[in-house]
């Protein structure tokens, strides 16, 4: 029996509501944590972004730009306060306070490492040199075999390998679901990965 698009959407909406309700009751909700230096003004701008009807709308872009600008101002103010506190502590001979501030800032504002090595194994600091090194790397990777390899192939004609593979087992599907990363935007279904992971062993393929 073929269902209409409206009927399918209605059934999915009902299922989604039931799943969310059961997950909230059994798992609970977690509050999103923000950095201490983010002001209430920035959070207010950020809360307005999901209410925009379309990402291509001018109001959406305006709110997003205002949020980014406010966050940059908050971060600049935060670092200015850190610098002032360190200077004041240094002027009075307090060495413990600057150390605490450095530890505090380094833990909360850590960023992924983007280090790149040259051909001899040394680290590259210049951004333009990093880009050039990446270009050399992929040029070598994608053009490794520059000569025809027909002479290296066997002369006998062999049938192509079969591309028919068995489908994944329930154990493999459950393992793949458990490996989903948390705190990511849900897909087209609108259900977060945390909900799938909570019942990975009971889902049917």
What do the pLDDT scores average to? Answer: 76
Shape: extended
Radius of gyration: 27 Å
| Weakly predicted, low-confidence segments | none
- Reading the helices and strands in chain order gives HHHHEEHHH
Quaternary structure of the protein: single chain
Q: Order of strands across the widest beta sheet? A: 1-2
The overall strand count is: 2
Helix-strand category: mainly alpha
Q: How large is the count of helical segments?
A: 7
Helical fraction equals 40-55%
Protein name: Reverse transcriptase domain-containing protein
Organism: Dibothriocephalus latus
Give a structural overview:
The chain has helices at 5-26, 40-48, 58-91, 96-108, 127-142, 170-178, 193-198; strands at 116-117, 123-124. The model has no long low-confidence stretch (mean pLDDT 76). It is built from 7 helices and 2 strands, in the order ααααββααα. It has a two-stranded antiparallel sheet with strand order 1-2. This is Reverse transcriptase domain-containing protein.
Output the keywords.
2% strand; 53% helix; two-stranded antiparallel sheet; 7 helices; mainly alpha; extended; 205 residues; single chain
